[in-house]
User: Fold this.
Amino acid sequence: MPCQNPFRLPDRLDLNLQGIISLWRRLKRVENGMPFTDDLDLSSLSALRVKPFLLSVTATPERFRFEFLSECLRAAAVTGSFIDEMSPDNYFLLFARSRQRHH
Assistant:
């Protein structure tokens, strides 16, 4: 099943994001639009210069769970927690709120 990306990338990305885009492209198999879960080694995320985090998504109800947080983000969230369980002043809630506007 093809995956539609609701968040289009801009034509020009910040240079700091090039590493994560390169990693994403290397992980994709053949013609797949996105990598499989077992293609990702979480230690490769730790080596990036940016502040990566990885979310898993459940469809019904739609929820976002932190599977990986770079060390500098661990004060803002806990691995295994859901975004909708976080304090309303947490900046990760901006992501959750932007998803609500798309529905």
Notes: The mean pLDDT is 78. Strands lie at 53-58, 63-69. The chain is about 25% helix and 15% strand. Residues 18-27 form the longest helix (10 residues).
